[in-house]
Structures are given as C-alpha cells and as structure tokens.
C-alpha cells in the first residue's frame, strides 16, 4: 500500500457563479522513502494541493475526491484524528520561515511545542528533543535559546525542518523550502531534506517552480498547469526531455551546465497563466502553446502514455519529433 494516494482531488474556492477551481482532478501516488516533486508557475495550484493534503485551506474552499494517507481518507477524518495526523502522520515545511515562526518565542520552545501538545513527552524531555532535532538539522543545541530574528535565513529554514520532524511524521510536505535563500544555502537545505527523508524512510512531497531543483532532489516529477497535472514521470527524464510543451518551456527557462546557449538566453514562455475563473476552452495551455493544433482549442486532453513510465496530457505525447 502506498503512503499517499491522491485520487481525483478537486479544490474550489467560493461557490455558484463566483466559484474558482484551483485544483482539477489530480491523481498522484507516493511511497514511503520516495520523493515526489510538483512543479509549475505561480497560480498553477501546487501550493493549494499541498495545503489540501492536510485540510489547511480556508473555510471557503470545497474539496472532493480522496486523499489516502496510510489508507485513511484525510477528507473524511473527524477533527480529533485530523489534528493528530497533522503532526504524527504528515508535517509541512512552509514558505518563508520568518513568517511561520513566532517572533517573540525562543526557537527551542517552538520546536518542543508539538511534542508537548501531542502528549509525546514531559516538558523537560520535549526540550531535550528540541536540542536533538536542532543538531539533526545541523545547528548546535544551544541555538534553542535564540529568537528567530537572531538566526540567518538558512538557519531559520533548518528550524522549520526540525519543527516538522518533531513528531516523526511519515510524510514531509515541503512548499518552496528554499525560497529567498542564496544558492549555496539552497543546496545545503536540499541535501539536508534529502538525507533526512532517506535516513528515516519518510515520504517527501516537494513543491517548487524550479524543475532543476526537483530533478536533482526527487525520484518523480509532476508538472501542474491551471490546476491539473499535465505531465508525470521520472524526475530526471521529465526535466531533460519533457513530453508536454509546458514542461519543455519550464525546463528551458533555466540555464544548464555545458550548454552555453542556455546561459546567454534562457528561453521563456510568452503570456501568463489563465485566470482560474475563466479558463479557455479545450487545453488550458493552448493559447500559449507554440505547437498547438486545432483540436487543442476544442478538447481538453487527459493524461496518456507518452513513453516508458511517462504520462502527458497532450495530443503530441510520445511524438515529440513533430513539435
């Protein structure tokens, strides 16, 4: 049995004429000890997907489908069980550590809090656990006495990872964990997350706009556009030879080692993602697609086989030489 199974997940904000579909029929699977990346531009629905996994969305959001975590459906859980699952079953490393941490509480107290709240230890044992977690993420235990503003951006992100691991979750959700960090610190944080996941047999779902980062960190990669997964497959394979035109555009936006042309002029993608409340007919990507066909403006494409262990929602899937 998979650690995480997402089946036909749909998330809509509002209702009636003002309803906005943010996630539209997503299906994904993640096994324990494996790493799944989700990529896409801002507004594609990837962060909404991450928050939906633990029902952390506002009351205006309507969810349907199934989110099976160790076989239990998160969407039908009672409040008490959901509260426990949010720590012991799965934890989130949010974007922007400075905004996620309490500015007037010491770091050690914030890491120890979930251990205390969920009845795992006495106050003294919880503080010792906080020190152990700080050392596990590469910080001295003495930093438990520090306040968030006394730490660097990379150190604060390590604290967020320590807090997420406090109750030994089975699933770690990392939403843009390296946002606003310099390149060297990004690499350190990514290696840390990778080591922790592999060493503890924890499943990782990582959200990012950066295909290069996900290809280097994850086993599999799902590309989202306008609330749907438009491509899925082995991470390195999707990054190096995407089958969907949108995946290729994302990949081409980043310079590559050994490719001088990409360093001089990384290719972008004209236009903006569509308004979720007014999606175009047919494939939502077709107004921006450089290889769109007439059928693309008429029919929305479902994921189809596009090669060994590859899926793509495109009429050209599996025939890239025509693009």
TrEMBL record:
Span list, region Disordered: 261-281
Record's subcellular location: Cell membrane
Record domain ABC transporter: where: 4-251
One GO cellular component, as annotated: plasma membrane
Biological process, per Gene Ontology: peptide transport
Pfam families referenced in this protein's UniProt entry, alphabetically: ABC_tran, oligo_HPY
Keywords noted in UniProt: ATP-binding, Cell membrane, Membrane, Nucleotide-binding, Transport
Keyword Nucleotide-binding included in the entry's annotation: yes
GO molecular function: ATP binding; ATP hydrolysis activity
InterPro entries assigned: AAA+_ATPase, ABC_Ni/Peptide_Import, ABC_transporter-like_ATP-bd, ABC_transporter-like_CS, Oligopep_ABC_C, P-loop_NTPase
Membrane topology, as annotated: Peripheral membrane protein
NCBIfam families documented for this protein: oligo_HPY
Family to which the UniProt record says this protein belongs: Belongs to the ABC transporter superfamily.
Protein name listed in UniProt: Oligopeptide/dipeptide ABC transporter, ATP-binding protein, C-terminal domain-containing protein
Native organism: Streptomyces wuyuanensis
